[in-house]
Amino acid sequence: MTLLGLMALAFLIGSIPFGDIIARRKGVSLREVGSGNIGATNVLRTIGKLPAILTLLGDVMKGTFAVAMAKSLLNDPSSEGIVGLSAVAGHNFSIFLRLKGGKGVATSIGVLLLYSPRVALVTIALWVTVVYFTRYSSLGALFAFAVLPLTMHVVDPVKAKVPIAVLMTLLLILKHADNIQRLIKGTESKLGEKI
């Protein structure tokens, strides 16, 4: 399968809105409650822990599966990263939600878990640390991914992966524009708060 074909398939897989599907089974439309986001954080705030965990796992697996496909067929770090980014883009701009979607954090982590496992662990550790001290999930993600290119440069010996890390960071920051504004204004909701 060509790179373009894998990118299209990864985008389709990434577009599967696990949070939205799980919420609708509970009779909830995530786009109309809480932050309006389809990710695990909004699921946690509006539905509960188990649905949030299932959403998180589903979103992570989308990224991991995309990279697994690319690794088995392409054997090229740059191409594998591009396919992984396609899954993140699918999550962020889902074809099943009229190009609306999530923030891409969990799916990006899923990509990193297979693309660069040690970088994934550092990124998760940074996210968890910031969230632990601030209770802001968005701030944790923004910090962990803002330094992702540096983390990739320092931790992973394959330097061709650094541009992929830069693109992943830009995608995540783009989708967190509203969160950044709320953090600046002091109106961002903390993890575990009901909206």
What would your notes on this structure say?
The structure is a single chain. The chain has 195 residues and is an all-alpha fold. It has one domain (3-185). It is built from eleven helices and no strands. It has helices at 3-14, 18-25, 40-46, 49-73, 77-92, 105-115, 117-134, 137-146, 148-155, 162-175, 177-185. The longest helix is centred in the first third of the chain and has 25 residues, at 49-73. The chain is globular and about 45 Å long. The model has no long low-confidence stretch (mean pLDDT 93).
Beta content: under 5%
Compute the gyration radius: what is it? Answer: 16 Å
- Structural category is mainly alpha
Overall mean confidence score, pLDDT:
93
Write the element-wise H/E pattern from the N-terminal end onward.
HHHHHHHHHHH
Q: Which geometry do the CA atoms define?
A: globular
The main β sheet shows up as: none
What number of structural domains do the residues give?
Answer: 1
The helix content, as a percent range, equals over 70%
Distance between the termini: 45 Å
Give the count of helical stretches: 11
Quaternary assembly: single chain
Number of strands: 0
Low-confidence stretches: none
Give the structure's gist in a few sentences:
The protein has 195 residues and is mainly alpha-helical. It contains eleven helices and no strands.
Properties at a glance:
single chain; 195 residues; mainly alpha; 0% strand; globular
